[in-house]
Write a structure and sequence with these properties.
With 382 residues, this protein is of the alpha+beta class. The strands form five sheets. The chain has a seven-stranded mixed sheet, sandwiched between helices. 32% of the residues are buried. Strand 5 and strand 6 form a beta hairpin. It is built from eight helices and 21 strands.
Length: 382
Amino acid sequence: MGLRVSPVGWGVAVVAVLGLVLGRWFGWLELATVGAALTAVLVVSLLMTAGRARYAVTLDMADRRVKVGERALGRVEVRNIARRPSLPSRVELPVGSAVAEFAVPALGPDHAHDDLFAIPTARRAVIVVGPVRSVRGDPFGLVRRSVRWTRPVELFVHPLLVSLAGASSGLLRDLEGQSTRDLSDSDLSFHALRDYVAGDDRRYIHWRTTARRGSLMVKQFEDTRRTTTALALATDPRDYADDDELELAVSVLASVGVQTIREERDLVVLAGPGRLRVETPPLLLDDCSGIVLASGGAGVTLLGRRVVREAPEASVAMLVTGSVPGDADLRLGARHVPTGTRTVVVRCERGAEVSVRTQGSLSLATIGRLDDLPRLLRRVTA
C-alpha cells in the first residue's frame, strides 16, 4: 500500500500554503481565498483515497512461454470478499514499461469481475507482468493510493527456432564409440590383442586366441569419447550491424542448442556473463529470451578463449556472431579453441547467402536467414 502525491499535487499544496500565508500577512483577502480553496481541494482529494476495498485478485497467464509473434493471453479477476458492496475502482497492470488499466465496477459480496488481456510479442524478451494494483484517487490526479494484490510474473518470449532433426547428423552426432589414439585396457572399443602380463584383469582374456596360440592373450581397447558441444554467442554490440542480426544469431544458437538437448548430448552454452541453463529446452529458451548486448560483452575474438576457460572438454565448438567482424577476427576467435576441437564460426548477416569455407577442423560460415540453418549444417558436415 502506498500514498503518492503527484507533482501537480505538490504544486497545488505549495500555492495553497503561499496563498494562506501571504494573504494573511499582507491582508490580501483574494489571495487567502485562493489558498483556502486549494487547501479544500487537497483535503477532498485525500478523503477520496480513504478506505480500503477488500479484494481477492488473481493474475492468470494462459502460458508464460510464447515465441516471437504469438500473443500472450492473460486474465485478471477481482473478487469482493467483504460483507458489503464495494465501490467502483480502477486496477492497473504493469506490462514491462507500459501500464494497462481496467475499470472495476461496484461489486456485491463475493461477486467477481474479470478482464482478459493480450500482450503482443514482436520481439524476444523477458517481460515482467504485474503486480496487479488497485488505485484510488481524485479526478484531478493530485493524490492517489495504490494497493498491491499480486506478485509480478515473468513472461518469456522465446526466439524463433528452426527444426534441425536429421540435418544435424555429423556436426552434432554423439561421438561415443569413435576412437581416439589413446590405448586402454578397459573400455568399449576393441582394438587388438596382446600378450598377458602379470596384473592384467582375467576378465579380458581372449580364450579362443589363447587356446589357438597356447599362451594367454588379453584384449586391448581404444579410449572412446563423448561429444561435448560448446555454443558461444558474441554479446559485444560492435559485432552487430543492427538488432535483427542479434535476433538471427540468438535463433541460430537456440536452434542448435535445443536440438543438442533433445538428442541427449552434453552441452555448454555461453552467452552474456555466464552459462545458460541446458537441463531442458524450455530452460535454455528462457535464458535465451534474456540475452542482451552489453558494452562489456565478449566479442567474437574472445569467444575461443572463453570456450577454453569454461568448456575445455568440448569436442565441437560453435561461435556465433554478427556481420561486422571480418575473416581475420573470426579466425582469431577460433585460434584459441583447443587443437582437435571441431570448430564452426557462424557469421549472421541478414539477407546473405549461405557460404561455408572449411580448412582442417575450422569452418567459417555465413547465414542470412534462419531457415537456411539446416542447409548450412549439412554443408559444414559434408
